[in-house]
Design brief:
18% helix; 5-stranded mixed beta sheet; disordered C terminus; globular; 60s Ribosomal Protein L30, Chain: A; 2 helices; 167 residues; alpha+beta
C-alpha cells in the first residue's frame, strides 16, 4: 500500500489503494474527506483559521476556508460525489498549554463552522485538549484512525461537537 504524508498546508487525494496521513498535529487540524462509493480520500493539513489574506505570497491552503474549498474541488474533480463525502477532523490541541489559546479554538471553530455552512457533515472527530495527534485514512477500506499523544491507534468515532459549534 502506498503511504502518502500530508504536510502543513498541503492537500492530497488518493483513489483506491493508498494511505493518507498527517503526523504530529498540534494546533493544526487535519480535515479528511472520504467517498466510500468511489473509494476516494482526501486530506488537508490546516494551520490557521479563517480565510487567507489576498497577498500573493501567502500559502493559502494553510488557512481553513481556503483548504476546505480546495479539498472539496479536488476530490470532486477526481470523481467523488459531493453527497457521498463524509468528513472527519483531527487536531486543534493546545500542546503548548498556552492560556487563552485563540489559535486552537479558532482553528476548530473555523473548520467546523465552514463545514457546517457548506452542508458537509462531520461524522468523526478528535479535537481540542492538550495532546498532539496523528491521523490516517486507508482509502481502500475507509478506516480512519488517529493517535492521541503516545497512545495506540484508535478508530475515529463521532464526537459531540456541540460545544464548538457557534463559538
Amino acid at each position: 500500500m502506498k503511504i502518502i504524508d500530508v504536510n502543513l498546508g498541503e492537500i492530497k487525494i488518493v483513489k483506491g489503494n493508498g494511505l493518507l496521513r498527517a503526523l504530529s498535529l498540534g494546533s493544526c487540524i487535519a480535515i479528511v474527506f472520504y467517498d466510500a462509493k468511489n473509494k476516494l480520500g482526501g486530506l488537508a493539513h490546516v494551520m490557521l483559521p479563517g480565510k487567507s489574506p489576498k497577498h500573493r505570497l501567502i500559502k493559502r491552503k494553510r488557512y481553513a476556508i481556503n483548504a476546505i474549498d480546495a479539498l472539496l474541488k479536488r476530490i470532486i474533480n477526481s470523481g467523488a460525489n459531493e453527497a457521498d463525502i463524509k468528513v472527519s477532523i483531527v487536531g486543534g490541541g493546545n500542546v503548548l498549554k498556552i492560556k487563552n489559546d485563540d489559535i486552537c479554538r479558532g482553528n476548530i471553530c473555523s473548520v467546523i463552522g465552514y463545514l457546517k455552512e457548506n452542508n458537509l457533515e462531520i461524522v468523526g472527530s478528535s479535537v481540542g485538549g492538550f495532546q498532539r495527534r496523528s491521523v490516517s485514512v486507508n482509502v481502500e477500506n475507509g478506516d480512519i484512525v488517529y493517535t492521541l499523544g503516545n497512545s495506540a491507534q484508535k478508530i475515529i468515532k463521532k464526537n459531540n461537537l456541540q460545544r464548538w459549534i457557534g463559538e
